[in-house]
Amino acid sequence: MFKTSLKMSFVALATVAFFAVSCKNEKAATAEESAKLSVPFEKYELENGLDVILHQDKSDPIVSLAIQYGVGSNREKTGRTGFAHLFEHMLFQESENVPQDQFFKTIQDAGGTLNGGTWKDGTVYYEVVPKNAMETVMWLESDRMGYLINTVTEAAFENQQEVVQNEKRQRVDNNPYGHTSWVIDKALYPEGHPYNWQVIGELEDLQNATVEDVKEFYDRFYGPNNATLVLAGDFDTAEAKQMIEKYFGEIKRRQEVDPLKPQPVTLAETKRLYHEDNFATAPQLNMVWPTLEQYTEDAYALDFLGEILSQGKKAPLYKILVKEKDLTARTIAYNSSNELAGDFQISITANNGVDLDSIESGIKEAFVLFEKDGVTDRDIERIKAGLETQFYNGISSVLGKSFQLARYNVFAGDPGFITQDIENIKKVTKEDVMRVYNKYIKDKPYVMTSFVPKGQLNLIAENSEKAKVVEEEIKENVTKKVEESNTEIVKTPSNFDRSKPPVQGPAPELNVPEMWNTSLENGIKVSGIEQNEIPTVNFSLVIEGGHLLDDMKKNGVANLMSDILMEGTANKTPEQLEEEIDLLGASIRMYTTDESIIIRGNTLTRNFDKTMDLVTEILLEPRWDEEELGRIKTKTINQIERSDADPNTVANRVYNKILYGEDHIFSYPTIGTVESVKAITMNDLKEYYNKNFSPSISTFQVVGKIDKDAVLKDLKSLEERWAAKEVSIPEYPVANNRDKASLYFVDIPNAKQSVIDIGYIALPRTDADFYPVEVMNYKLGGSFSGNVNLILREEKGYTYGARTNFSGSKIPGTFTASSSVRTNTTGESVQIFKDEISKYKEGISPEDLEFTKNALIKSNARRFETQGSLLGMLQEINEYNLPADYIEKEEAVVKNMTLEQHKELANKYLDASKMAYLVVGDAATQFAQFKKMGFDEVKLLDKNGEEVKLDDVKL
After folding, report:
1. Could you say which protein family the record assigns here (predicted)?
2. Do 694 and 829 belong to one domain?
3. What would the mean pLDDT of 727-736 be, rounded to a whole number?
4. Residue 164 scores a pLDDT above 90
5. Which pLDDT value is given to residue 6?
6. Residue 955: its pLDDT value, please?
7. Domain annotation covers residue 228
8. What is the CATH number for 798?
């Protein structure tokens, strides 16, 4: 996922001037907009080989530091896979001058955020902090670059081995289709090719890795001469250079790392493989063709090909597989070109029970249609139109700019490669798209995978062979005892005392952007913030009600409303509406929440008026397309049925039913049930629309490079045409009336992890205590440095993460403690949660309270950076009628919190003896133990939250 998100930021680049030419029907860009597109930088190199790139951005009092190493899983070898990703974790543990678990805590204490990511071709670490903490970040990053390896002990290594293995279980082994990439890469890339294995590594390799293996890998690839440092944000250049030289300049070069040469592959023949998936409920077919590496002429054209084949209602795959044959609800095709090689993939998750032979046949028919219809200039235009907006979104934060500059430097040798990248995109023509289709796809061998639910081998594509997927066996938990070394860590010499953290200056003062408010004559409350850094606008129209207005007997109507309104208008077919949005370079989406229906949009400033014209047309001129409703219902039913295989979705559904009870609408999923969705008719949707869509219960929020007058001018049509009506939103009584500790278990046979949700009904967002309890919860589980995460992940290695939180709206929400843990640690993990919640009521230390205050107050410097974060703030203000200065009031709550108040809140809102304890996992191995753990009751439930009689179950 991390790689995909990065790729979107960097591929989607183009100049305003170019798009103004391409999109002939839209307004021309201004010279001012064109000038904004560049990301100015200064690059230089330290004597030790570290590339340094500086980008000043004084729009917010923050800085980001990103360090990208030229090492990903492509630098590993067979039998020793997963090391790059394992090191991503190891570098967060400790270094010679930064004690255990202090990386996260130090940055959070400064009001910052941090993380890292590993993909096939690279590893990146990053921090975003208030500008006064810039030196602190350099101290931390330089210490793990040059002063880490002596701290890599057997105990620390064993812990992170467990954490990484849990990440694999959570993301791969416990997920539908989780093994797909493994099967594809093994078949597509020959043994020994750097892309033959997965980034996360083989479980056996992770288990067999030794400290010496890891030290050798670190020495080879984590030196300054294999890294790029990017500093972006509000800093003084001379001061920054001085700090970089001080902290990084003395780190010695390590082994020289030769650049890897492209290694594209070919297939002599088609390979057809299948796998029975323990978690899948629907069959999935993937077809993958080898292509070539990134930044090549053909790679750009292949990106366009994927978009044209699969995205939107004009796409051949959509026309054949969805519209004509009703075999699936969604089509996906994309090109993935990386540093060494690439592949082009078509991925189709079929409707339940569909034979994958028919999917394969349908794909071939779509190719025939594509060859017949070809590619039009308009197709090329609409794709390029969206790239401009995506580009601006990618550089809307200092971190986004850091990633962009680092990636270009590492993979293109030039942070300013953006100019050439833009030219390469500009040059793509319809002829190029057809050429690469013929060169790489048409009649060429491919790898095909058929993943089908257990027991449904009749659905696999014919002539497929069984893939050699290795499934982990669930065993009794045996803790590997590793003796902590008492040997004192040998300190690497330095020119100054690195054991003393830098002194941070005063944190930036809270500076809430100026906002404006007004109301339209039809009752819509409008709020806005003008932010001029990039020429885009983000907006949302929130209509209250949503799932709250659903009839329990026809649950899911509100959710279907969100979908049907986006399927054309009275004057535009679904295909025409989609194309109009695309040609504006805009995005408009509509979705349903428990308490609202939201229209969310992102567009260029110069196209805001036309975008709002489309929003008004969508909202006020529904098409009510019966054919599209049939497809939407099929898609929704598929989604519901597939969710039965996702332990996290099952847990959420059952948890809400347990806590809210059958008489509350929140105990019913927003998406509906299979039975309720099948029963919904177009008349049900029209009735909901006519009764419940009104400006009187709506708010409009807008953030971007646009002023109040322009916004109100472009809202005029919506104001004049949308008449208000009376809407009554039902109220459902809800209270915390639990009086015992109940253990509920939902069986997912052979699950490699158990999903744990613990809690009860707490309080609404509107309660005066709500923000104070969020503050109180912070050290329990509100961050990475929360007690439950430090124990379950960092100390025990049982999970990839553990959290606690309070949720709430106008309706009382929940307190929830949650995690996904290794199956054979389920019982102990539940007990740890129970014990830590109880112990927390005894109070926290003055140091922990100070940490909480620093983390929450200082982080406000990062709170107003992007248009998206500002839009969220406006929505929160309008939804809960908060004062404009509510963030200042929250700061006061934090500053004034005492140890006594903290303890009082914990005792008032945390009672482990009255919580519901839900476990979704493998009942055969984990259920019985809970009968002996002192719970007031222990029940086995099905996936819908109904009790299962133990006499009817074999455990």
Report:
1. Belongs to the peptidase M16 family.
2. no
3. 91
4. no
5. 29
6. 61
7. yes
8. 3.30.830.10
